[in-house]
Every structure is written in C-alpha cells, then in structure tokens.
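@channel sequence for tomorrow's demo:
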Amino acid sequence: MTWETVIGLETHVELSTKTKIFCSCTTEFGGAPNTHCCPVCMGMPGTLPVVNEKVLEYAVKVGLALDGEITRSCRFDRKNYFYPDLPKAYQISQLYLPIVRNGKLTIHTESGGEKTIRIHELHMEEDAGKLVHDPWIDQTRCDYNRCGVPLIEIVTEPDFRSGEEVIAYLEKLRSTLQYLGVSDCKMQEGSLRCDVNLSVRPAGVTELGTRTEMKNLNSFKAIARSIEYEARRQIELIEEGKRVVQETRRWDENKDATFAMRSKENAQDYRYFPEPDIPPLEIGEDYLERLRKEQPEMAEARMARYQADWGLPVYDTQMLTSQKALAEFFEATVALGAPPKQAANWIMGEVLRRLSADGLEAKDMVFTPKTLARLIELVQTGSLNRNTAVKVFDAVFSDDADVDAYVKEHGLEQVSDAGLVGSVVDKVLAANPKSIQDFKSGKEKAFGFLVGQVMRELKGQASPQVVNQTLRENLEQM
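structure tokens (generated this afternoon):
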C-alpha cells in the first residue's frame, strides 16, 4: 500500500522587542536565572498586564506579509493549565479572535515544485519559562526569565506532504521574518521553534488519519529527521493492525526517535475564556495603512531587481537574498564601486565560506562592504592576483583589518614587472626541457605545469596574465 504523509505546523516566533509583552522587563537572551522577571510576568496577585504596542505592530506586519486578514477588533484569552515553568498557571494567548487569519505563503522546493501553504491563523501570546534539569544533584529548577517574552504563533493548514516542503516553508518564513525585522529567528536560542502535527493515510483517501504532535523542535535537521521517523512509525503501527494514539511526543536527538509525553489536549481542556484584565484591541484603517507603507522590500522583490538591474543569474540572487543582512552587504559593496557580478562571486564564495567556518550569520560579522570593495578593486587593477587576494581576505576577515596596510606589511603586491617575469620564465624553461618538448607535441598540460613553476618562483604574487603571455611568447620562439 502507498501511504501519504499529512503535516501541519505551529511555529512559535519570539519577537525582537526590547521589553516583554505585558511588562517592562527586558527580553534580552541569557542572564542569570530569574533576573529578567517582575510581579507582572510572574502573575502575582494584584498586578495588571499592559499590552506592548510594538508586539501588536510586529504581529500586524507579519500578517500583511503573509497576505492575511487582519482582525480589526481582536482580544486576548486566558488559557488555563498548570506547568512548573508558568507560575501563574495560565497563559495569555488568543483563541477566539486571533490577530490574523487566512494568510498564505508560496514555497519553492529543491525538486523545483511550487506550492502555496495556507495559514490558518497567527496569534499573539506570552512565552513560558523553562525547566533546567541538573543530573548532578538530581533536581529540576525553574528559570522564569522567559515568562512574558512576546510570541506570535503561526498555524498552518495540513498542507505539507513531505519534510522537504516543511523545510522550504520554514526557510521562506524565517527569511520573511528577518526581512521584516521582527525576530532574529535564532533557532539555537529558541527564537524560532516548531511543533509538527503529523498523520498518515492511504494514498487517494481524503479523510485525515490520527495525528501526533512533536513539540518544540528547534533545528531544521531535527524537524526533517523527526518527520521521517514519525511517519515511518505510524505506518508500521497501522500495517501491524495497531492504532495510532493522538498524543504529544518529544524528539530525542541522541536516540533518533520520538517518545510519548502526554495525551494530546484539545481546546476545551484549557478552559479558554476572554482575558478579563486586557480590553479588546481596535485596529483602524489609518494604522493599517501606515504599517503597509513601512513594509520593506522582501527577498523575492530584491531577486527580481538584481536580475533586472545587474543581470545576475537566478541562483546568485537566491543566495544573496537568503539573508537580509547578506543582501544589504551585497548592495553596499556594489554602491562602493564593486562590479555586481564580482561582488556576488566573492560573497557567495569567500564570505559564505568564512561565515560557515566561523559559525556566524551575516548580520554578526565584523567584515565590512568597504573592505571587500577595496579587495575587489586591488584585484581589478592588478595590484593583487585572485589567489593572494583570498589569502588577504582570510587574514582581515575576523577583525576587518586595513587591506592596504596588510598587503604592504607582508609584501604581497602583485609582480607585473615584465623584465622580472621574463627572467624567471627563462630560468624555468632552462630547468624543464622535457616540458618544453611535451608542449610542442601538443600537450597543453605541460603549459600549465610551467605556469605553476613560474608562479612558485615568484611566490604566487605574479600577474597571471603577464606570466601566461610571457611564457607563451617564449615557447613560440623556441
């Protein structure tokens, strides 16, 4: 039997506001446990929450970017449950009137397919704290710093049929959020985490199967592997005549498997009711129009512009716009005089290589467009050859050191003196008579060998054009 996997996502996004959703405590990541909280986010008796206006603004901007319907009169609801990391035993969220409904996001998969994912809703809520398990003392302790950090939860329809589609959606969503500037989307810090609802059914059947929910997945690798495992687990259960239980499961990275946590709750289990301490929010047309005008140029629009204005290939534009900071770095480099294609090649090659090796994101690097533009200029004017320029790049990348000073200090300027190159060529030819014979008999590799010998004698600092021209002229005269 052929099986079909059906997946829906709930993506939790921490917003990049300076303060929490209902109080003035900092949202800064880290800090000593229980130092970023106050009576309001701890839910102490007698305190009242006040909505952070920036949270509403960010939520609406995301809703507009997802082509969603903005709820003009929305409100918060109280979701009642007890967890040790939520001291007031309820969470302020939205159920009945979420801020955004009926959005969509179009994705492109690696296999070349295009698909529109429907967004059921986007709602605002507060985050809970976290439990810290200490195996040395066999205790679990609570850190309430994260309580009240503003979240938006983006809930899709069950439109995904593979892990590939899920990852394509999350990459596109992360890019959208970063371009909007509403979240840093650092999965390793919990700023972007995902719950995966998954079921399987026989191909051709329209009725949904029993689903499980895998909670708080915080890496693309974990998401892809958990989807693969859970789909296989459910199929095997059904084929063995057993049934899939609706439940919440956790992904164990070390065991490469999911494990049951608890039975899956439904909305009625949380006893939702309108939050009595926060009045409804009324959103006017003037407010919406202002936010529409503030929407930035998104990745797809930049891709089209790069292709139209600078003739860059589609692949280049995809790479350059994959991160907002990378696109801005590219545009700043071009604005400083670097040819667009040369700037693109350096960024896609050397810059991304170093970012990966150093474990950095584009927005975190010290290296500046001014330094890259100068390096490209030195190659163009013949002051440096490409290989030496790469060595200079690696040397100055971490601290954005002065390129000209480094080149001068280490004597790296390219040798373009035809007389000096000619004398080295004569020396190399005299030492390699067999290579001369091979070249004359039509073996082009011999020419490459001789070029390499000349470059080695000149410590890689010679102009490749001058070396090639001088060597070929000398060989033709023999």
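heads up for whoever presents: The first strand starts at residue 3 and ends at 14.
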